[in-house]
Amino acid sequence: MDNSQKINQPTGLTLVELMVATAVATIIVLAAVSCLYYSALSAREADRNGTAGRLAQLLLENWRDAPRVSTATVPYWPAGFDPVGTYNAAAVDAVADGSLDDSQWSYPVTILAGVEGPALPADAGGLIWTPLGLYKTRITDATYYITLAYATALASAADQGQVPVCGLQAVIGWSRGRNIGYQPDGKHMRAISYE
What we know:
By secondary structure, the protein is of the alpha+beta class. The protein has one domain. It has helices spanning 15-65, 89-95, and strands spanning 68-69, 77-78, 85-87, 109-113, 130-139, 142-154, 164-174, 188-194.
């Protein structure tokens, strides 16, 4: 008998080793997919926040460009300011100082009268804000709800001869899904301009 014979040993993976390797690979793939999903959600939310900021800037700039009048109840108020209308891409790009390179703003933006929108924040900065109206617009896959309010005040209470200051506050919220209406607990941003 020859002692130099090889003993046949099985090669390959056992069933337990294969199951452990499959479980580890599954966990790694799920972690990567989860990261991609939440990155896409964060990017979409950042895009909506930026869009709301551009929309607020567009409204505030149009308000600042409106002719001013003084009435018995509202000194130095923009005459006939009404944000309802269609704003072309050139007007939106002008607000962004010509630096807008975003396909969602390449077509006209139409602002309509609305029936719901974000509430005015409680911290009014010592001014009494009078609601101007509720508005809405749809840009790409989100509906933006706009609440406008104005306030008037003297620039300095010590000098009564100063010209009154008028402020416009735009609070913009957006829906997270399609056609679900404004959600009071949803995301929103606020912008204020004084003239």
